[in-house]
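INFO  loader      accepted 1 record
INFO  loader      residues=481
INFO  predictor   begin
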Amino acid sequence: MAVTESAPAVPPAARAHTPTTDQGGGYEGILGRQSQRESAARTYARSLPIVPVRARGLTIEGADGRRYLDCLSGAGTLALGHNHPVVLEAVKKVLDSGAPLHVLDLATPVKDAFTSELFATLPGELADDARIQFCGPAGTDAVEAALKLVRTATGRRGLLAFTGAYHGMTAGALAASGGADDVRVTRLPYPQRYRCPFGVGGERGAELSATWTENLLDDPKSGVAAPAGMIVEAVQGEGGVIPAPDDWMRRMRAITADRSIPLVVDEVQTGVGRTGAFWAVEHSGVVPDVMVLSKAIGGSLPLAVIVYRSELDAWEPGAHAGTFRGNQLAMAAGTATLRYVRENKLAERAGTLGARILGRLQGLAAAHPCVGDVRGRGLMIGVEVVDPDAAGPDDSVPPAAPALARAVQQECLARGLIVELGGRHSAVVRLLPPLTLTDEQATAVLDRFADALAAAERAHTPHPPASRRAPAPRTAPRPSH
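INFO  predictor   done
INFO  writer      dumping tokens
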């Protein structure tokens, strides 16, 4: 039976500016046709019913005539924001040169420039002895390539992955993310300060996670399939913006190295300066065996690669291919983006500005009991929304409040601010602004967010927030490092 869907709700502030035509070609007509024609798997379009027509930097202009501050940035793809001049110039240069746009995996000057710039940003120990594989256009394709690589190199089939992980939507990536059943994938506890899987948090929780992993791998009766690799995010993005403790990352590196298990770090969303280091794994000083890269490395265009130690390069010719692995425009845009971030020290800037934003959000949390936790690294920030009037399982951490988080998101949109939700219960408001964010723009984003948070809280609170009990000390938000 066919499933029908009504057109997405239009924010009241936007509806007043909505153009209409007799042919239904305006804002609402476009959204209506999208809901009728596109699949039920649509995601962002459901919660963000806007029709972008122009964009520059942080700002998107919709077909409704409104301007929005975009703190989604293509799910972290737009390191320099929309249509940055250096990206446009790089793409235009290739187009004007007459160079071929589709070359499979052939060598080209554009590809050579991209590879050279990328290797210049990698951890030195890896770059000195690395190989690169150009994959299909999406990060999930690079994850699949990484899994195939380590299985080929080790001759083993098992995989170690973590609770809360997100590595993509293809079969192998879904299995590593916990979205599909695969007996070869062993799920390990990812450390969290706020919602610790062991109920203790902090350094003790991270230590228990590492000890659990060691015991599982060393127990001949654990039932764990011999692992070909461990895949981990230095900051879980879709999992709720959870930074891995640096000591714990070093422990994972030691555990895998001692057991000859390749360590695969997924930098699809965290890479290219997003967290305050060019690559998030660098915060801990860890050098992985494989890095999975996509999103920002293409400068807003589709590009995905894996970079790995040469000793793992056991593939036969043609063992991993893809028709669109030679995207020349993406490589040119990526080269320009990587160079701009490196030369202008935008990673360092992201770390400094991100710390200030976390501080401001921490102040908001003190005044709003519905904010359970504020966390992140650099310009990868999450605000977990909770119900402070409902006791959590251990009577100290309130349960997540996904309905209230959705209300915050919609109040943000009504004020011209685009944010996304994530986390285990979709109760974490995520901020991923471009690395080019100015101090003034950061203030504007935070002002709109504060106003939206207050409005959503009022609408969902039967009595003034001031009459609520204060949250338990353990839930007091503070920036994660």
